[in-house]
Amino acid sequence: MLSRVFRSKDYGFFELFEKHSSTAIEAARTLSELLSHLDQLPQLALRLEEYEHRCDTYTHMTIDLLHKCFVTPLDRDEIVRLISSLDDVVDGLHLVVKRMQLYEINEVPETMARFGEVLVQGVERIAEMVRLIPAMKDEERIRRLGEQIHELENQGDQLFIQGISQSLKKYQNDALMFVKFKDLYEILEMATDRVEDVSNIVEGIFLEHN
Questions:
Q1: Is the per-residue pLDDT at 9 higher than 90?
Q2: What is the pTM of this model?
């Protein structure tokens, strides 16, 4: 039903980028909320899955539009790379929740909860970068946002190291539980990398078209 509703509307490329990135913010906020309120895992997991499906629909609509348009506002490869990298971010957020359910995680360390906050900040910034693409102005703002995202990615690296170290100590006699938390931290760290990938793509678009 959701897909049919979306496909009944006539969106352009920039609008699809913005809708995808705005939905990504909601997905990141939902993950962060889940990491702070694990007792709400079932309902929040369903909400995040809905956001992931919605972003998949925006991605497919973008590719469909590419097939229909002879003239595009950006190079075709730029459009594909941008929408694909945005989708990778949401897929990463969704994967965290799926693994938590699979592993039957019943506690979330503070370090992992802080990861959620970093991801929200990063996704909010890439959404702002995406909103600046149509006007193709304010290169200085794009540069500052890129620097902030790079700093957030560094914070993610530090949280990853802290999380692995804490898990080693806590689960030194439970190898299986350590492996589960190690996997979760790796996925979270990968998600921050994907956020920076989007930032790099947008910065590249501005460099190419200015």
A1: no
A2: 0.92
